[in-house]
Request: fold
Amino acid sequence: MSSNIKICDNTAADSFYKKADALRLDNLYKEATTNYLNAILIDRNNAESYYGLGVCYKHLKQYSKAIKYLEMAADLKDDCYEIFFELGVCHLLKGIACGAIKNFVRAIQINPDNPEAILQLGIAHELCEEHDLALMIYQKLIENSPGFLKAYEHKSTLLMKLGQYREASNILHKLLKLNPDYYKAYAGIGICFDKMGRKNSAQRYYRKFLSEKPFSHNAEFIQNRLEKLKNRKTEKNNLRICK
Reply:
């Protein structure tokens, strides 16, 4: 008789789990949490239910709860890349960079060929202000996954933050060789040239960016900067004429 009850329970748990998964995939996270919790009440040994619940809480911005349930999933299934990756992301979102590093390292150990966890590991080190480590990780990622454009973007952004504009510009030029339609790179190169005092080159790349992305959220800043550079050039020309 107890065996029949167990079969019934597992069927009910599976039904709640499948309904929860469908709701989560439709971005109905609050509704999904109820069904995941029902599944867990029936079967407390299902790592997938804890994982789904943790992901829902992440999207609901309840990061402490998300970490709690993802850690429970990890206890049940310690060889799952997705669980440790999501744990790392939740730690980052909660501002716990050290916890993020530990989980991204574990995710990479499980699946060393997935560049996303390596990128996030670099971001975690960057947030810890371990800039040399972050730059090394981004560079290794570029070398090992040369088509992974996010690595170029993050490395160039960090280099710009550190005031290394020439190096950042070189990385962005490499990015454009891989994908000429990566228009944010034009804005980045323009800013690098601007900071280096190469105003004509800066204007050229600013114009290129605006011609392709006139309604981008960066467009107003770029347009204002371009106008200032043009006005300065006009003022200098007027001064020459007066002399």
Remarks:
- The mean pLDDT is 91.
- The domain at 152-237 is CATH 1.25.40.10 (Serine Threonine Protein Phosphatase 5, Tetratricopeptide repeat).
